[in-house]
Amino acid sequence: MRYHRPGLDLLSHALLLLSIAMFLFPVWMALTAATHTRAELYTGIAPLWFGGEGIDNFIAVLRDPVGRLGVSVSQLLFNSLVMALGIAVGKIVIAILAAYAVVFFRFRGRMLCFWAIFVTLMLPVEVRIMPTYQVVSDLGLLNSYAGLILPLIASATATFLFRQFYLTVPPELLEAARVDGAGPWKFLCDILLPLSKTNVAALFVIMFLYGWNQYLWPLMITTDTAYTTAVVSLKQMATGGDNLVPWQTVMATALLALLPPVAVIVTMQRYFVKGLVDSEK
Amino acid sequence: MTTFQRHRFTPWLLLAPQLVVIAVFFFWPASQALYQSLYVQDPFGLSATFAGLDNFIQVLVDPEYRRALGVTVVFSASVALLALSVALLLAVLADRVVKGARGYRTLLVWPYAVAPAIAGVLWMFLFDPTLGVLSAMLGTLGVDWNHRLDGGQALALVIIASVWKQVSYNFVFFLAGLQAIPKSLLEAAAIDAAGPWKRFWTITFPLLSPTTFFLLVMNTTYAFFDTFGTIDATTGGGPGGATRTLIYKVFEDGFVGYDLGASAAQSVILMLLVGALTLVQFRYIERKVHY
């Protein structure tokens, strides 16, 4: 049965390659801009090819304090990394424990706990941003890694994913473990965790990207640039007091800030797609 | 399901970290938001008087708020429709070419990992009035591009940047959805002499409707909340409020203007709006969706 038309296939390939090029175009322009001096950039329209600076602009922003920020981009990238890892690891750990309690134990108040956790899915942090800011401020957590991380792990997405997964675990596994005299902790560590490896990896990728790419929250609670993240710093660089935007610096920083999450998604694509398609539907 | 019995203390120990975190960083601020929306507070937070629904009424009669609502509707609808249609087209193309679908996925999935704020900055450079490549191109076509002055162009800029980032997310779902459609159905239709166009609209598209429906909900919430970074890093809500969406106004009134009552009332309205939107989508669209 031949219902594939070779002509259409060729057209499909051509259109796909064209779209991929169009999607890459902004990144290409950022890359070429980052290899020029500011004077070169402002002689006309942004150049489509590399300039003479090579990787010097990248080294400069990583090593020296950038503009009015007063800190180097290495520091900003480090802050982003702490925040992303803190959110990913924190969320996964508390979610595994909570889902385990809700699925494998029967206790008074179980349904109440379940609903209390469920409600957090309805309200993203953006909606309750002002009062959350006040709470963090009252606790003295402004300009701290804890302040960057904790409010963003206060949602139950991960808890529900693990709950869904645990519900599919065959009851015989638990029976067998109990017959063998395994307690709750042993069952969790020796049987459940090894089974959840793929889910943990998938969730880790998604949560890492979520944490790394945060904007509003770090913008609000980090007045001290020593705790600012790379993503948030871009606006301050792009709107310097100077009239001419130092695009070569901005673009070098933008590329450095987008590289880690893009690397994660490309290398862990299998888990990422699994995490997305399995979980959110 | 079999469970562990006679462990009274263990489940609470397991739940403790999650419960503490959501109590402190979710329930406390959420109740504060509700409380503040009903009270009028002086800027220093020293006194508060009960105001009932005054904050809500004030927000709703404010022409600036209605303007932000209009901007949000135009912005969200454009982002969702464009991101969905481009992604669907690309997914159909990638699904056609059986060989290489995975390779194309790798090449198209990465913009998802780019932060909304970075997406905004990248596109701002392309449209920079003095040295941007695209603004220069538009210049030769007779379009005078300056998103710092022209509200419509500023809105177009943030829409393009938001769509650029969101297409990859939709693409992953559409491609997975397409690959799950049994090939035998399409082959049968081909035997009945249905062309590719007809096959798409009578078989593929209806079977994709659950995916499309889910993505519509996700894209709307993306346009509502996640694009804050895109807007703040590029246009800052300007010029003259042309890109000030509802979430941006909550931030401005609360954090810049320090009008807590108005900000909290807006948060509550936004919450109800998102809830209602999700409900409407479920009630009215789900009926037309084939599962």
From TrEMBL, chain A:
Predominant subcellular localization, coarse grouping: membrane
Xref: Gene3D superfamilies: MetI-like (1.10.3720.10)
Domain ABC transmembrane type-1 intervals: 77-268
Keyword Nucleotide-binding in annotation: no
Record PANTHER family: ABC TRANSPORTER PERMEASE PROTEIN MG189-RELATED-RELATED, SN-GLYCEROL-3-PHOSPHATE TRANSPORT SYSTEM PERMEASE PROTEIN UGPE
Assembly information from the UniProt record: The complex is composed of two ATP-binding proteins (UgpC), two transmembrane proteins (UgpA and UgpE) and a solute-binding protein (UgpB).
Protein name: sn-glycerol-3-phosphate transport system permease protein UgpE
Organism per entry: Halotalea alkalilenta
From TrEMBL, chain B:
Pfam families, sorted: BPD_transp_1
InterPro entries in the cross-refs: MetI-like, MetI-like_sf, UgpAE/MalFG_permease
GO cellular component: plasma membrane
UniProt KW Cell membrane keyword: yes
Residue span, ABC transmembrane type-1 domain: 69-281
Topology versus the membrane: Multi-pass membrane protein
GO biological process: transmembrane transport
Transmembrane segments: 12-30, 68-94, 106-127, 154-178, 199-218, 264-285
Protein's UniProt keywords contain Cytoplasm: no
Main location class: membrane
Subunit composition and interactions: The complex is composed of two ATP-binding proteins (UgpC), two transmembrane proteins (UgpA and UgpE) and a solute-binding protein (UgpB).
Family classification: Belongs to the binding-protein-dependent transport system permease family. UgpAE subfamily.
Name by which UniProt lists this protein: sn-glycerol-3-phosphate transport system permease protein UgpA
